[in-house]
User: Fold ATP-binding protein from Corallincola holothuriorum.
Amino acid sequence: MIKTEQLSQQKLATNAANLEHGFAYLKQVFLARIKLHEQQQVSGEDGDQAAIADEVELPPLAFYQDGSSFSLFIEAHQPSFEEYVILLLALVPHVQSCFFDQIFEAHCEHGAPAEFGGSRQNEHRLFQPTGETALYLLAGGDLDRRFQVQQLLASQHWLAQQNIVRLEAPDTGQSYLSGRLTMDADKVEQFTVGHSPEPDFSSAFPAQKITTHLAWEELVLPDAVMNRIEDIKDWISYNVTMMADWQMARKLKPGHRALFYGPSGTGKTLTATLLGEATNRSVYRVDLSTVVSKYIGETEKNLAKLFDTADGQGWILFFDEADALFGKRTAVNDAHDRYANQEVSFLLQKIEEFDGLIILASNFKTNMDDAFLRRFNSVVHFPFPTEQEREAIWRNNLPEALPWQQGDDLPKSLARYELAGGAIVNAVQYACIKSLARKHKELQQESLLDGIALELEKLGKVFRK
Assistant:
């Protein structure tokens, strides 16, 4: 690990330091392979060149633990030497387009040796790495090692599964490995400027960004609940240091999984958005109605797309009404039950692999599958607010721009009605609209009581003044 004190403050804010270091490392690997290639040419031996890691002593993999998106990605995935080189091969043309040509011009008398493969089907005829480039660079002519490297380029490997690096389909009649190594455009942006474009809501990403203009001081929760929320904030702030500097990545699973449960309107969604605001993280609410499909296998595909897009971004994923998909597994009575249980198992796997914060919200803890509950790092109960807490919620949400009928005693008199925070906000909105429509110069208690009556009616309760 390279200490961040060695870096300038300017580079700390971007991926530049890690990419400069990574590309210098890739250059060392290329020069080592070129040297082995030339030695074989001079000796005239027909023997196969060995894998680069077996023949050349290279420095150990290292990166700056600076909180940049590239370092977070490396920490989360812990790539092998070969995977790291393949990642750099796919990324470097997007950052230093002449990287390979400069190496070959400076160190190869006749240009790039044919064994390195490569494609020049681009506007400026620049060398772009292919599958052949990766195999020769890492394995030389060692067939066994070449086949091992080839597996890293397969569609089943995590680099391809997570849409990070793919082997492009070759032109008709060309060898399978002549396809270019390509990197997803979102990953290029993540590894360079530090973030990907915010995804639009779609079937490929069934989640919508949620924000709030409220502050922590306006969140009314019991002290015990706030202590649990502080625990989650601490994880967001110090997880990178714990996993990397303290070398806990080998012992702990990535990510943090939290369950927020309690009645509707008690602050679960607001707390999730405030966590994002406080830690400078985007929060995305997942639309489970879009994720869940009646067609066999489609739910798993939708979930895979969602997690692949969010992987390595540092986002908070918020699953509202999560028991729709995360609920108790059923006894297997037919094919539908069997596939429903497979969806839950697949979800368990994706949640445990995700390197960020996942928050599941449910009205009832008892609705959740026991297998999920055992995997949560935090289980936070959002209770129905007490009368004292309701008074604070009323006080926080009543408008400041006009006087209140009954003055400062109004929140206390309204707090006796048993409403959760979300219902109180609805009642305030109703009263504000009515006060404007009736051209009142103060917020009328009667309008607030009408709003309360409507909210109680939704709950099937009788309103009594």
